[in-house]
Amino acid sequence: MRNSPARDSDENIPIKKIGMGELDVLSGCGVLKSLLGSCIGLVLYDERQRVGGLAHIVLPTSQGESDMPGKYADTALPELIRRIEQSGGRQRNLCAKLAGGASMFTTSNPTPIGDLNQKTVERLLSTAGIPILGRHCGGKQGRRLSFDIKTGNVTVEILGEAAVEL
Amino acid sequence: MSDDVLPLTNLEIGKLQGAFHRGAFEASEALSKWLSASTIISIESIDQCRLKEATSILEVEDSAICMCVMGMEGTLTGQMLLAFDDTSGLAMADLVIGHSHGTAKVWGEVETSAALESMNIAGSAYLNGIARDLSARGSTRLTLIPTPPTFLRDYAESLLETAFLNQAAAGSHIVFAKARFEILGNPMRWTFLLIPDPQSLDRLTQILQSVQ
Q1: Which residues of A fall below an 8 Å CB-CB distance to B?
Q2: Any idea what the Cα angle at residue B109 is, between residues B108 and B110, rounded to 5°?
Q3: Which CATH code for domain A12-165?
């Protein structure tokens, strides 16, 4: 069963938090939010139809796993496109914005997973012909991402710093 | 919890309880000496949850939180985290430094160092206790070696997401042990998490087969 999104009490706007490995799509109005570390928050938006989605991608490739499409870059992108089209959006109208991919913990891995996630998502978007309009990736700190469906605004916040609009 | 296959069975979790209680007991003794104050660390749960629920376990999701992160190496590998909010962490720093409660206001070099050393002492004793218990009750001699801790301050969920990443790569469930602290009879808002990596979960299952 899907959870109903919370609502902003003043304007009755649905607000949905997207957890690790999840994705969701809203149309018309609403806000999708995520807190990101090494994961990538992938926002896709069809401005004409006012339909958009957010995937909280954990790992670059699914290697055949399909139980949680939002978890992997190679399954999240097609699933997000499918859900957006189901809600009235068009792939040819889509633009992308990305945030996350930090390296928060010290690791011996020469290519941190955050970097791999970002590179894989960017490669897949390029193959799908979806332009990237903004990104806020890398570094060592977590990010709070908020995507407003009505305006298409994507806001990214790092702890202790002013929010940035992508 | 769903009907999906979980990483550990109830029997295995039951066998682990004893080891984690021993670890918590040894960490309590070590921290009591270090802080010169009676400290009780108690195991709240050894739990398994879905990936999407994992980052909510500290119940402070998008608030700022501090974490001392320590690696676990040896027979089992993974991460140990000591999580606390600013107020609780700075209270610990005051206790370590010998200042009266409320002296420390910000995370300077001395306060950070006090938190890291506390983690070093508690984490090392915790791992020693777990290794000693499982070695005594089973046929495998365990060695668990802590790495030097690092201090981070960030969104709770962002930190937990990174801590759970290795387990997330292997499956849709997360295994963790959660402990709570009490100093001089007062509950502290500190949480101790032990997060084994996926290879260690497989190894742990084998080790637990011989544990009485």
Answers
A1: 19-22, 35-39, 58-59, 67-68, 71, 102, 104-106, 113, 141-144, 159
A2: 95
A3: 3.30.1330.200
